[in-house]
Amino acid sequence: MSAKKLLHNFDGTMPRLEVLTAREETRVLLHTQYWDGEDRKISGTLAFHGVAAVGFSVNHLSESVGSELCGLYELTDEAEKRGLLRENFDRRRREFLLTGYELAEDDPCDLLNDTGPLERICLADLHLYEQQTEGGIYRILAKGWNLEEE
């Protein structure tokens, strides 16, 4: 697997995460403050557009809210992109079943069996971004991103 650092936002915080759903135009906003390489405090928003999937695993336990940031990266492995989509699909299936959803196992059109939406996603058009924090990882599969400084 290969990764490239996109933003050196170490020693920063991310106090708020927003997911603005709008089908293919879904956006994810990571509100942040960090110190750049020139000792300048940056306040802004990492704005991801054309979001196809979001996954995160965070344990703040003894961390402050918005744990210390440890860099924004792009993961370039196609298997990682596909893996995030599949992981979200499988987790949704598991959680629905845990809460009593009655699966029609032989029906390919059942909500939990229908992989059509996954198969229609063109991974070549998407990038997998990973914001690392002291408390965990945020992964965002999207068409692109930009930093909106305040």
What does this protein structure show overall?
- The structure is a single chain.
- With 150 residues, the protein is α+β, with helices and mostly antiparallel strands.
- It has a domain at 3-80 and 126-149.
- It contains 2 helices and 9 strands.
- The protein has a 5-stranded antiparallel sheet, with helices on one face.
- The radius of gyration is 17 Å and the shape is elongated.
- The relative contact order is 0.26.
Number of helices: 2
The succession of helices and strands, N to C, reads: EEEEEEHHEEE
Query: What class would the helix/strand composition place it in?
Result: alpha+beta
How far the N terminus sits from the C terminus, by CA atoms, comes to 34 Å
What ranges have pLDDT less than 50 throughout 5 or more consecutive residues?
Answer: none
Helix percentage range: 10-25%
Beta content comes to: 35-45%
Strand order of the largest sheet: 1-6-7-8-5
Shape: elongated
Computed CA radius of gyration, to the nearest angstrom: 17 Å
- Biggest sheet: strands, sense, closure? 5 strands, antiparallel
The tally of strands reads: 9
Mean pLDDT: 90
